[in-house]
Amino acid sequence: MFALWKLVLYPNGNKKKNVEGHISVYLEMVGADSLQTGCEVYVDFRFFLLDQNKGMFVVLQDANKKEKCFHGMMRYSGFDKLVTLKSFTDASNGYVVDDSCVIGAEVFVCKERRAGKGESISMIKDAVMCKHVWKVENFSELGNECCKSEPFTAGERKWKIKLYPEGNNAGKDTHISLYLGLDDPESFPCISLLFSELGDPKKLAGPKVFAEFSLIIVDQMHAKHKCFKGNNWFCTSNLTWGWPKFISLDTLNQAGNGFLVKDACIVEAEVTVHGTATVL
């Protein structure tokens, strides 16, 4: 497998993602159409922005430092909001001099693999982002049980947001845990049939849905929202994906932060379904 790469810059923000007041920069895999079905490239990368006044590069990378998986349906990754336009155009920062800037990328291909055979992948050419807003009221009375939003539709699938008010797993008793999940696993007929006959769906390959998504807890006072972004293949054996340590309970409950107002928080999900895979 051999991959070529290019940088994609939106100097006034990626309007397709409703970005304003920032520049957006992405690393894109070129020639992804020629990849064989199931081929994946795992990459660690970072961006460089040159301070032309000092002759020094500012390093910009994902705080999670997690490898990104590129394939035929996920061709790019990067930052919707790399840096504010105000900071970018501030002459004292040296990013733009004589109406020009210098942006670079360092790319490490960690591994390449073929995920498997026997799947038919269908891409959605003009994928549409769907947004769902969930107001969680009487938050202090919820206890430690999982709360679920009303189902909503994105990419012809039903989804739900799952929230643990006192956390679960690594976030137990210290954080809110927040996840996106499929709400219609019964729509995978071949898995349902095999489950009834063989008993364990985790051992069986089945239909999958690939989605790119954001989960957000809204700052109702200052518009400084808490947001995490991810992408995942959702299937019967992997119905949910998210973050056990989404936001600390101390931060949530601190007066003036705006995340909890009148004992209510607002959670948003932005979901874009890019494609599906089915067993041949």
From TrEMBL:
Q: What is the protein named?
A: MATH domain-containing protein
Organism, as annotated: Pyrus ussuriensis x Pyrus communis
PROSITE patterns named among the record's database cross-references: MATH
| Pfam families given in the database record | MATH_2 (PF22486)
> What InterPro entries does this protein map onto?
MATH/TRAF_dom, TRAF-like
Q: Where is the MATH domain?
A: 1-107, 129-271
Gene3D superfamilies noted in UniProt: Apoptosis, Tumor Necrosis Factor Receptor Associated Protein 2, Chain A
